[in-house]
Write a structure and sequence with these properties.
By secondary structure, this protein is α+β, with helices and mostly antiparallel strands. The chain has 2 domains: about 100 residues, Ribosomal Protein L22, Chain A (Alpha-Beta Complex); about 100 residues, Ribosomal Protein L22, Chain A. It is about 25% helix and about 25% strand. The strands form 3 sheets. A 5-stranded antiparallel sheet has the order 6-10-9-8-7, with helices on one face. It starts with about 25 loop residues before the first strand and ends in a 25-residue tail after the last strand.
């Protein structure tokens, strides 16, 4: 795993376009922070939420607002981003995209399908994943890495893994139809400096095997941001699942 540690005490809350820096050229990312009192949802978007609690509705609406702003930058005005029966966003053709939100941070990314097969993104508060969840989220390779870190940095490291696997799920499911569980993906963390880096997918328990994927991340104040983009010409690799190392615990799980 990486030789550097998750930074502590850094404040990047005022960094503009933090998500935009995680995606390659051709991906449009829009985000908003702080008070999430967004524009009203469309009737279809509102109905898709059912009887969701007010906070859930605010987060959902803020994410949709970011998505509409991103699509507007692509020339699509007033888009309605519905929600499928499987809860994934329904993007207008010919676009792909992803949405992420917490109570105080919402973001969306979109790209043309001719350029990218799929996108995934996630944002989490860096203290979101306590020790009682680590064995559910991390495979042995990743648990070993967490164990090498100072005690005060381990929760942030586990949250990074959680966030990256969420972003990978959001990317892979609409593209390949695979429902990945946390134990289906093994990641290797590589730091580029103190507050950013990449996560290489070392293995996957799903069938067919995933293509080579690299997620990018950055620490941004109290948050960890993760993003992954698959080029349009990418294809699942043809590796024999039996060749996977025992670092990976087999068996697909459901999405959170």
């Amino acid at each position: 795993m990486g030789s550097e540690h998750p930074p502590q005490g850094q404040d990047h809350r005022n960094t503009p376009g933090a998500f935009a820096a995680l995606f390659p050229p051709g991906v449009i990312a829009v985000e908003r922070r702080g008070d999430l009192e967004p524009e009203a949802l469309s009737e279809a978007e509102s109905e898709s939420l059912g009887r969701a609690a007010p906070q859930r509705r605010r987060e959902f609406a803020a994410g949709r607002e970011c998505a509409r702003r991103a699509l507007a930058r692509c020339g699509v005005e007033g888009a309605v981003i519905g929600r499928g029966a499987d809860r994934r966003p329904l993007w207008p053709a010919p676009f792909v995209g992803s949405i992420a939100h917490t109570a105080e941070y919402a973001a969306a990314a979109v790209a043309h399908r001719n350029d990218f097969a799929s996108l995934g993104m996630d944002v989490e508060r860096r203290e979101a994943v306590g020790e009682h969840l680590w064995r559910r989220i991390a495979v042995p390779l990743e648990l070993d890495w967490i164990g090498t870190l100072p005690v005060g940095e381990r929760v942030s490291a586990a949250t990074l893994l959680f966030s990256a696997k969420e972003a990978i799920y959001k990317c892979v499911y609409p593209w390949l139809g695979l429902r990945l569980g946390f134990q289906d993906v093994a990641l290797e963390v590589r730091f580029d400096g103190e507050s950013a880096g990449t996560l290489e997918v070392r293995g996957c328990g799903a069938a067919p095997p995933l293509p080579a994927l690299t997620a990018r991340f950055r620490w941004d104040g109290r948050y960890v941001l993760t993003a992954v983009a698959v080029p349009a010409d990418a294809a699942p690799c043809k590796r024999d699942p039996g060749e996977l190392t025992d670092e990976l615990v087999q068996g697909a799980g459901g999405h959170r």
